[in-house]
Design goal:
This protein is mainly β. About 5% of the residues lie in helices and about 50% in strands. The strands form 2 sheets. Strands 1, 4, 5, 7, 8, 10, 12, 14 and 16 form a 9-stranded mixed beta sheet that branches. The protein has an 8-stranded mixed beta sheet with strand order 3-2-6-9-11-13-15-17, with no helix packed on it.
Length: about 250
Amino acid sequence: PAPLLTRAVAPAPPGAVAPAADVLPRLVGALRRVWVNGQPAPALAEGAPPPGVRLWALEDAADGVGERLSPEHSGFAALNALSWRHGAGLALEAGVKLVEPVHLLWWSQSGDQPWDAHPRLLLRLAAGASATVVIHQAGAAAVDAFLGSVLEVDLAAGAALDLVLVDQQGAQGFALSQVAVHGARDSRLGLWLLDDGAGWVRRELELTLAEPGATLALQGLVRGRGALRVDNQVVVHHRAPQTHSLQQTR
């Protein structure tokens, strides 16, 4: 990550003017939450969680943060633990099947100087629950910004998660994501990595199939253009027999 380490950045300034709603990417029918330059933009939120689903600002209740990816994991994990100010948590009760997708959008727009933000995200699906979650990083073409995010996922027995990570940042954008997933017995994770930007993207994924019957299907799609750099570091731990994983990228 030398191109990132040589940059001088400051925390994103508060009070960014929220863009017009029609400027932002939109997923029709989704429960949407939006952050602009790392700051919550509640006026741009859409939808309310149904019974059995909790979607909250992680800074208001951070219980469980760090259980899957501790600050000791790496220097970037420590930087996130030190610097994060805003994030989101999503929890589903046992047996709840969330029909609407959840769209978590981190939007970057121009500032007076290069800036950074460190989102923190936590997803927990209890036994037999299912959901689709889209975590979307995008922004204006000329934004010079660094998003250093951490995502922790817990899938209980029989839970099913379709998780879509999308990057559409401009050529001056830097995004480093650390993802830790723990899948219990008979859980299913469908993971899509979609890159359609022009900046610098690195993902460090540690995916643990902890008990028999846990499965993973990872699909990656990169549309290369300009100076786009995508670096996906994927580690899959098969901790038990009868666990299965598939990876393919195009």
